[in-house]
Design brief:
4 domains, 865 residues, 8-stranded antiparallel sheet, alpha+beta, Jelly Rolls, 27 strands
Length: 865
């Protein structure tokens, strides 16, 4: 029986263990170094925490205009923290502390400083909950606690927390799911399983997929291995699993369905590279960053007499299977949604190894002396083979000596336990395993810190490389000039595409694993906008294309003074500081635009990029093939025939460009340039023939980078359109190597269409946007047919005009538009997550059904007594 005293001791012990396991980063914290990775950790984890905290504490739960070009919170940020319980609870605590003036306004620096303490709390819960789950399975307290430490202090926990913090939350729900399954099997009660499934699905759809695969495997093994004599019949178990799954899914649907919808309406090119069946990338005995097989686990695994005990056999066999699966990239791909192989699921192996160790330590003293000697010999042999088979491991290195020493001490203490069979030797063995786990946890943190995390410090987070004071001051001056809160500023620090969130402005960039598919298609295909860097999970800037800045509220641009030469047409310098300069767009179009000229996407299929931009300026492009159109496309001719193409440091024959110098390519020399041409649009298809070398492409002063052909983050979109300022010679440069270069084209832009659009633009619309609701009042006196807004189109937006619901359209390839009426139009746009209302009803009904189901079973059980 679990008493309050036992629970108190357990949670205190778990907290102490978690603190000791974080000693390295606690020490680093005192030196203003933080438990956060420099890439995704800072660019996504801390940044999205800041964004969501500000949203949630201001009462805005559904939509963020600041995220990229605007996006739904549930559909696009549920992969991160939008519905994560640990973050939601943390937000509540931090909000209380902020309200009491105990902490300041939480920014990315605050969340970086808090990371180690949040991790300690999370690990405390993981250890305590896992211990309680093992105790329910009738394992002694101390072995259960040690087994939980194998899981909670695993190397993958620290890897997840440091680089992708929300990954670690998944470890909380595994023991709850197993506990729920055991409740069904042992007591025919499904309440815990319903709750565990609901929490898992609500918290994060990606790791719900991973965890539920594990639960299915666990259920199959449990049906084959009975732990009790009076377990629930299999048929009834299956019935309870189905009921639990349906009710858990129903309860979570309000968060789960919008999240999955967002995932399905993201865009990522299919992974085209072959996936090997077997691979041995890391040594899981000595140096794996994903999972470390400990000496105590190997010892119990090779103690064959323990297999007579059902609970040990259960965890040992699942662990053995998972170890084999670990070496298959196919399995890594399957756990990653059958995409590129990613080793993110190994925390499940740590859990089952923890279960095997807990059960093994419980029954180890019953093993025979010969059995333990044979097991010890197999452990030594395994260490020897793992060392000899891996040339990167030096037996006499500090790591080699340390791991072997731990192994030998573990075997010695186990042997003494078998020979003496006294409880204090079991206590000493368990204590040594705990100390070993603490030591390896801190060594893991040190190794990760030395590899990449060392730079994440207070000095870095307040520097010009991340969030400099001079940058913020110039941004504030731009904000003070703007009369509308919906303009955008084109500014990022290097490749930190979430800089707008960090520095509190509306930008033109985003970095996230889940993005609006319509926007990604806009960048990659529809308008072929170069981002300065090839990526499947980013968009950034508008390729210095003035038409797009004017259409999408790109009012300001900030650049370093050393990189302020290539500025879009129509931008004038307004402010400067010591190192930075700001520009303002003199041709910005209104946020609310209307038109009576309609083009269709089908009619624009063969149009060149510049013609599509002009159509968006002159009218609106709709994707509805049944829509009546009246737009007249003005042809923009390809003048490549008027250009002399000269190889420089290279040869160019049969569409093959061979660069023989360190840098070379082609010069495009325009024979008779027009006097009114402001810019050229240079288009071409470019592929590198190198297997694994990324490269940079330069066109005049513009530079962009392309990923190598083996990269799992390559877009495989090799059609480039680069805008450059007008000049007689346009150099295209790439590094030494061989390339395929085809479809070379050149177009002139004099911006007459943009000037006309600016002159004719109506500014009579009045609008107000609060959270997820936008209201517009517009007097349509010009017989316009459509209203267009620079808001990305996604399911969830609804529009009413004069209190009548109207169809919302996707216009200009990726944005919101809708037909309007003559005269006064009172327009109300509201955004809720996709299927939110029906899902909310399903969740409420499912909660009620779950309560009735649990109470009914409780009543039956009590009555039967």
């Amino acid at each position: 029986m679990i008493t309050k005293r036992n629970l108190t001791i357990l949670f205190i012990s778990s907290l102490v263990l978690a603190i000791l396991a974080h000693l390295f980063f606690l020490k680093e914290w005192t030196q203003e170094q933080y438990m956060v990775g420099p890439n995704d950790g800072l660019q996504q984890m801390m940044t999205f925490k800041k964004l969501l905290y500000e949203q949630y504490t201001s009462g805005n739960f559904f939509y963020s205009y600041q995220f990229g070009l605007g996006g739904g919170t549930y559909s696009q940020l549920a992969f991160y923290f939008a519905t994560a319980f640990v973050f939601i609870i943390t937000t509540g605590i931090v909000f209380i502390l902020e309200s009491l003036n105990i902490v300041g306004t939480p920014d990315t620096l605050f969340w970086a400083q808090a990371a180690v303490f949040i991790s300690i709390c999370r690990m405390t819960l993981i250890i305590a909950v896992t211990t309680l789950m093992f105790r329910y399975m009738k394992i002694q307290w101390l072995p259960a606690f040690v087994g939980a430490s194998i899981y909670g202090l695993s190397v993958i926990y620290f890897r997840h927390v440091i680089y992708w913090e929300f990954f670690a939350d998944a470890m909380l729900w595994v023991p709850l799911l197993v506990f729920g399954v055991e409740k069904v099997i042992r007591e025919a009660r499904c309440g815990w399983l319903i709750a565990a499934i609901a929490i898992t699905l609500f918290n994060n759809f990606y790791f719900a997929y991973v965890n539920l695969i594990f639960v299915a495997i666990y259920v199959v093994f449990r049906m084959m291995i009975h732990l009790e004599n009076d377990e629930t019949p299999r048929g009834k178990q299956c019935k309870l699993y189905i009921i639990s799954g349906l009710l858990g899914f129903g309860i979570s649907s309000v968060a789960f369905i919008p999240a999955v919808y967002g995932y399905l309406h993201n865009y990522r090119p299919a992974y085209p590279l072959p996936i090997e069946a077997i691979d041995f990338p890391y040594n899981i005995i000595y140096s794996s960053p994903y999972v470390m097989v400990s000496a105590i686990f190997l010892l119990v695994l090779f103690t064959f007499s323990l297999y007579k005990i059902p609970i040990f056999r259960l965890f040992a066999l699942i662990s053995a299977m998972f170890i084999l699966l670990h070496f298959s990239p196919y399995v890594a791909s399957a756990f990653n949604g059958f995409s590129a192989p990613q080793y993110r699921w190994e925390y499940l192996l740590s859990f089952t190894m923890g279960g095997a160790v807990a059960a093994g330590l419980h029954f180890l003293s019953q093993a025979g002396k010969t059995t333990i000697l044979r097991a010890a010999a197999l452990v030594v042999l395994t260490y020897l083979i793992a060392c000899l088979a891996d040339p990167s491991i030096e037996f006499l290195s500090a790591r080699g000596i340390g791991m072997v020493s731990i192994m030998l001490i573990t075997l010695s203490m186990a042997a003494i336990l078998i020979w003496n069979r006294r409880k204090h030797w079991q206590l000493l063995l368990c204590t040594f395993v705990l100390l070993t786990n603490i030591g390896l946890a801190n060594v893991t943190q040190y190794a990760i810190s030395e590899h990449s995390v060392k730079k994440v410090s207070k000095s870095y987070l307040t520097s010009k490389d991340y969030n400099g004071e001079e940058q913020r001051e110039l941004l504030q001056k731009m904000k003070e000039r703007g009369s509308s809160p919906f303009y955008r500023i084109d500014w990022t620090i290097g490749y930190l595409n979430n800089t707008p969130i960090v520095q509190d402005f509306n930008g033109i960039s985003a970095y996230s694993s889940i993005l609006n598919q319509n926007l990604l298609y806009l960048y990659l295909y529809d308008l072929n906008i170069d981002m300065g860097r090839e990526s499947v999970s980013r968009f950034s800037t508008l390729g210095n294309r003035a038409n797009l800045y004017s259409l999408l509220q790109g009012k300001y641009m900030m650049r370093e003074k050393d990189n302020a030469d290539d500025i879009p047409y129509g931008f004038k310098k307004i402010i400067e500081s010591e190192h930075y300069v700001a520009f303002e767009n003199t041709n910005l179009l209104p946020f609310v635009r209307t038109t009576d000229e309609v083009f269709s996407e089908k009619d624009m299929e063969d149009a060149v990029i510049l013609e599509r931009e002009h159509a968006m300026l002159e009218g609106v492009i709709v994707d509805d093939p049944a829509q009546q159109t009246n737009g007249d496309t003005h042809e923009v001719p390809n003048i490549i025939d008027q250009v002399t193409v000269e190889p420089v440091g290279a040869s160019f024959e049969n569409n093959k460009l061979t660069v023989t110098k360190k840098e070379g390519g082609l010069d495009l020399i325009v024979q008779q340039p027009k006097a009114d041409t402001e810019d050229y649009y240079v288009s071409f298809h470019l592929e590198s023939l190198a297997k694994s070398e990324g490269f940079a492409v330069k066109v005049n002063d513009y530079r962009t980078t392309r990923k190598h052909n083996q990269s799992i983050y390559k877009t495989y979109v090799d059609d480039l359109t680069i805008r450059v300022a007008a000049s007689e010679k346009i150099p295209i440069r790439v590094p030494e190597g061989e390339y395929i270069l085809t479809d070379l084209a050149l177009y002139e832009e004099n911006y007459q269409t943009l000037k006309t659009a600016k002159e004719q633009a109506s500014t009579s619309a009045e609008f107000k946007w609060i959270n997820n609701k936008l209201t517009i009042t517009y007097n349509n006196q010009g017989h316009d047919r459509y209203m267009m807004l620079p808001i990305p189109y996604e399911r969830g937006w609804e529009v009413e005009i004069n209190n009548e619901k109207q169809p919302l359209k996707k216009v200009n390839y990726a944005f919101v538009g809708f037909p309007i009426k003559e005269g006064i139009n009172h327009i109300e746009l509201v955004y809720y997550p996709p299927f939110f209302k029906i899902c909310l009803v399903i969740s409420i009904v499912s909660i009620m059904m779950a309560v009735l189901c649990v109470r009914r079973k409780k009543f039956k059980r009590d009555f039967s007594r």
